[in-house]
């Protein structure tokens, strides 16, 4: 069931993004009087389709292969590699008959829609939910250094003061992914002294290996509630119980407790618990996921700040978030080509993306990820690879500068090369997804 929920969210998100992307091409083409022969969500490979109908000159439909979608524009060399239409002289309603500036607008129509959509999604999320942040003052016990954090120099109890010399006011600033790319310097207070910790090169890859976790707020805890874990077991704990020992080891903070629990999946854990004024001994089951089935109540101040925005302000926030995510992706790809990031560790395909949606349907998380994917789709489609929008844009810019179109045979060959590149990337990304699953 969890898999179906994750897959359903991914398919719905991609259906929205692909349909609107192709609609951008479609509307631009129709605005210039260009005939659009097909408009498909998902690919109808080998002519297999789930649904179709024809209205006017255009066939609309849903294919069976959920790897994107397409519009087939008359007189254009695209992924269909249809060269029969090029055997006759250009018709006035064909793509190739239009001036280069009109063809350029058609080609950037899809990424323009995706960029605008990303801004709008982030804007409406900001307006509807606001922006949550936790002030660093809330971290009264400092931070919990997880395994990755400890490996680069953080210690339990560190209090983060600055990043690259700039004062840190919220925990959200601490976990900004831009810092992982930059080799940022974290200044912490440790035993009354200031200590600088520099994130090493390749830290972004280490974050991917550790599920994007390297520090957390350190908290003391009691049991707030219990639930049934994956083994169908619920611990015999009550609200207010304080776990002070597990497997004979004392625990004071929640991260110490969870670390020991995760080390013993499919096991019965001996616990020492303070209940009211008594100390009692219990055993509790740990499932295959390293879950015992408790929800903690922390001793931290309940001071999550929710910043609210007016309808007008939310569009500025949406633009800033879209621009920040675009910048992050551009810089990340730069790091890959510079050899400072490993694509096999940090890139996710459909399987990895589906897992990010989660096994429960949370609309705020769904739209946040959809907004992020919309921005990424806009960026990826503008990469100068033949067969992508960016490749077509490069060829059109060359034509506009030189004053003459590139030979159709050349464009056809480049389209084939582009398709080979894209198929190779798809094989790599899918293979990488499954490799991660089976080597966990």
Structure in words:
The protein has 440 residues and is α+β, with helices and mostly antiparallel strands. It folds into 3 domains: 2-128 and 362-438, no CATH class; 136-216, PDZ domain (Pdz3 Domain); 221-298, PDZ domain (Pdz3 Domain, Roll). The chain has 13 helices and 18 strands. The strands form 6 sheets. It has a 4-stranded mixed β-sheet, covered by helices on one side. The radius of gyration is 27 Å and the shape is elongated. The two termini are 21 Å apart.
Keywords for this entry:
single chain; 440 residues; alpha+beta; Pdz3 Domain; 3 domains; 4-stranded antiparallel β-sheet; 13 helices; 22% strand; elongated
Per the principal axes of the C-alpha atoms, what is the gross shape?
Answer: elongated
* Class from secondary-structure proportions: alpha+beta
Distance between the termini: 21 Å
Mean pLDDT: 88
Annotation, overall tally of beta strands? 18
Total domain units: 3
In what range is the share of β-strand residues?
Answer: 15-25%
Largest sheet: 4 strands, mixed
Q: Rounded to an integer, what's the Rg over CA atoms?
A: 27 Å
Question: Percentage of helical residues?
Answer: 40-55%
Placed side by side, the strands forming the largest sheet appear as 2-3-1-4
Count of alpha and pi helical runs: 13
Detail the poorly predicted runs: none
Topology (elements, then pairings):
Layout (H helix, E strand, L loop, with lengths): L1 H30 L4 E8 L5 E7 L2 E6 L1 E9 L26 H30 L1 E3 L9 E3 L1 H5 L7 E5 L2 E2 L3 H4 L3 H5 L2 E6 L2 E6 L4 H7 L5 E3 L3 E6 L15 E5 L2 E2 L3 H9 L4 E9 L2 E9 L7 E5 L6 E3 L3 H27 L5 H4 L3 H8 L5 H19 L7 H14 L5 H31 L2
Helix pairs in contact: 1-2, 1-10, 1-11, 2-8, 2-11, 2-12, 8-11
């Amino acid at each position: 069931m969890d898999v179906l929920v994750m897959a359903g969210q991914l398919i719905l998100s991609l259906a929205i993004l692909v349909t609107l992307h192709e609609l951008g091409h479609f509307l631009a083409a129709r605005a210039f009087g260009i005939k659009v022969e097909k408009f498909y969500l998902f690919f109808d490979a080998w002519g297999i389709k789930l649904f179709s109908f024809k209205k006017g000159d255009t066939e609309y439909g849903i294919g069976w292969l959920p790897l994107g979608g397409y519009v087939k524009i008359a007189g254009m060399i695209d992924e269909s590699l249809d060269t029969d239409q090029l055997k006759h002289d250009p018709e006035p309603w064909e793509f190739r008959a239009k001036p280069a500036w009109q063809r350029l607008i058609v080609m950037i129509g899809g990424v323009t829609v995706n960029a605008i959509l990303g801004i709008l999604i982030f804007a409406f999320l900001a307006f509807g939910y606001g922006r949550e942040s936790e002030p660093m003052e809330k971290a009264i016990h400092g931070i919990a250094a997880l395994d990755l954090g400890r490996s680069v120099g953080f210690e339990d109890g560190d209090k983060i003061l600055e990043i690259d010399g700039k004062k840190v006011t919220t925990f959200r600033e601490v976990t900004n992914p831009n810092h992982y790319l930059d080799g940022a310097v974290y200044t912490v207070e440790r035993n009354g002294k200031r200590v600088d910790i520099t994130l090493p090169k390749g830290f972004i890859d280490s974050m991917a290996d550790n599920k994007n976790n390297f520090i957390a707020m350190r908290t003391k805890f009691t049991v707030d509630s219990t639930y049934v874990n994956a083994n169908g077991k619920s611990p015999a704990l009550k609200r207010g119980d304080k776990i002070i020992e597990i497997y004979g080891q004392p625990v004071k903070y929640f991260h110490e407790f969870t670390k020991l629990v995760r080390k013993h999946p499919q096991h019965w854990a001996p616990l020492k618990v303070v209940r009211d004024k008594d100390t009692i001994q219990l055993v509790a089951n740990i499932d295959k996921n390293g879950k015992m089935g408790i929800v903690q109540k922390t001793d931290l101040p309940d001071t999550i700040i929710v910043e609210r925005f007016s309808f007008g302000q939310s569009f500025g926030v949406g633009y800033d978030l879209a621009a920040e995510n675009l910048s992050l992706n551009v810089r990340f790809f730069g790091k890959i080509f510079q050899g400072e990031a490993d694509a096999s560790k940090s890139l996710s395909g459909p399987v990895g993306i589906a897992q990010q949606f989660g096994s429960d349907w949370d609309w705020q998380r769904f739209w946040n990820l959809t907004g992020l994917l919309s921005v990424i789709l806009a960026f990826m489609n503008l990469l100068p690879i033949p067969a992508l929008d960016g490749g077509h844009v490069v060829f059109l810019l060359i034509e506009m500068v030189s004053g003459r179109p590139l030979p159709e045979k050349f464009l056809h060959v480049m389209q084939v090369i582009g398709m080979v590149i894209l198929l190779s990337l798809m094989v790599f990304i899918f293979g990488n997804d499954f490799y991660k699953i089976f080597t966990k």
